[in-house]
Prior knowledge:
Elements (H helix, E strand, L loop, with lengths): L6 H17 L8 E2 L6 E2 L19 E3 L5 E3 H9 L18 E2 L1 H13 L19 E2 L31 E2 L2 H6 L10 H18 L5 H18 L3 H9 L2 H14 L3 H15 L3 H9 L2 H9 L5 H14 L6 H5 L3 H11 L2 H15 L5 H6 L2 H11 L2 H14 L3 H9 L3 H11 L2 H16 L2 H9 L3 H10 L2 H34 L10 H9 L22
Antiparallel strand pairs: 1-2, 3-4, 3-5, 6-7
Helix pairs in contact: 1-3, 5-8, 6-9, 8-9, 9-12, 11-12, 12-15, 14-15, 15-18, 17-18, 17-20, 18-21, 20-21, 21-22, 21-24, 23-24, 24-25
Amino acid sequence: MGSQTSTSEQDSDFSSELCFLEFHPRGAAIGTKDSVSGSCHPLTPPQEFVCPISLQIMSDPVIISSGQTYERVCIEKWFEEGHDTCPKTQQKLTHLVVTPNYCVKGLITSWCERYSFPLPRAPSPMPSPITSSVVAFSECVTEKAYLPHSDSTPLSSCEVATIGSPRFVPDGVIKRLGMQNGFPVSHRTSGSVMNTLNDYAKVLCRSPKPSFRCEQLKAVEDIRRLCRDNSDTRIYIGDAGLIPALVHFLNVAFRFDDDDAMEISCLALLNVAINNCRNKAEIVNVGAVSLLLKILGSEAPLSVREAAIAVFLTVSCLDENKPTLGSSGVIPHLISHLDSGTARGVKDALTTLFNLSIFPGNHACLLKEGMIQKINKLLTLGDLELTEKCITILHNLMLLEETHRVIAETDGCLSVLADVFDTGTPKEKDLIVGIFLTLSKAGADYTRLMLNEGVIPSLVMLSVNGTMRGREKAQKLLQHFREQRQKDTVLHDVVEVLCSSKSSKAEDLLGKSAKALLRKKTGTGLSLAIFRKSKSFSFPRC
């Protein structure tokens, strides 16, 4: 099977190759022990189900730009360490965006259920390169103690519970918390780490008195700094119950219109959630979404509102959060921000909208709130950083039939798409030809609109020099245009004959499209419309 550059095509071909594996697993080589039941399975999982990094069955497989599939946690850890190549092929990646591989995930689930194999769990994060030790985890602040309180609940009512649970506390976390580097990792030192985290939580849940404000701001800033570029720290700060405490403090800051506290709290939540799916889910589960929406709808400074958008950006990366966020009411705020935000804020808002557009259930809301009109406006600005995201969102929305009509009715939308199709990147051209192909299948009227934009020269070039995916779609679209032009030519000839015959029953013999042509009294035919845009090179007739 030939190599392909398209992720979706690789996924499809990979699916067909794995159909045999689902019902014919490989013979036993090494017993795999279920960590829960302790039973040994005489089956070796198919190699295609195993992450090349962790060597375990994947629980959340994702595809990277090289076409390889990895466990999400493992590949994100790889990227976080500064790598920009594929771990397996060493190919330099064009981008670091990962796409969920639902095909492989479904096959893994079916295979496990069929052969009573334990369903895979996400691998534990790799320990810090510095020596780690199993330690007692005590006096941890529970999640219940730091859930956001209502306005009537006194802030001093937070309680601290004690639980015992073994945890790995990396040495790097201890150093970042200001411990003495000379101390070995011990029960005493690790206990100090957790005590420090617990102290942060207690500080954030104190009464909102001016005397406590500086100490609380320092605690939030410490949390933000500790999580900025250390994944281990994010894990243990999440375990210590600091996410509910941060949301609680953000709620207090909003009630008292404390702009500095709101901004730094949002930035802390942002850093806590980076590359940590559990923390992303926790931020949504403890009620941060409604609070962040209040900030977006308030008269808070632009920097505060854009910090809130940054939180939405990172939590929207988690697939489980996309339906919740899409139905929360954040989409209108994000679309509105595209007109008023800074360059950074606009990019964050657009990327969040891109993440939400991946879930089909959000398409109707995006369309209703004027997403296509905003995309059209952004594309006319010619900002290269935003163009690909805009085209991708539009491509995702093509699943909705209403999108076809809105594109056709939006003034200049097809024209600007044709311009990007002429000059865009290979990925942008692949996306746009997909949009054009979907439109062409929606009806002859859409086909004529595209022909009027003079897209055939660019299609011919793409069919010769494009990616495999682009060439295939361009050839299909050119073939469709040929067939449509032949139909229109025959129809035009019939109209001319009937017009010359001056028959009173002429229109009764025509279909709807022919009547329209007759009323317009077209004299040159649609075959000339494709040359409306001037091109600097010749191309084959289609």
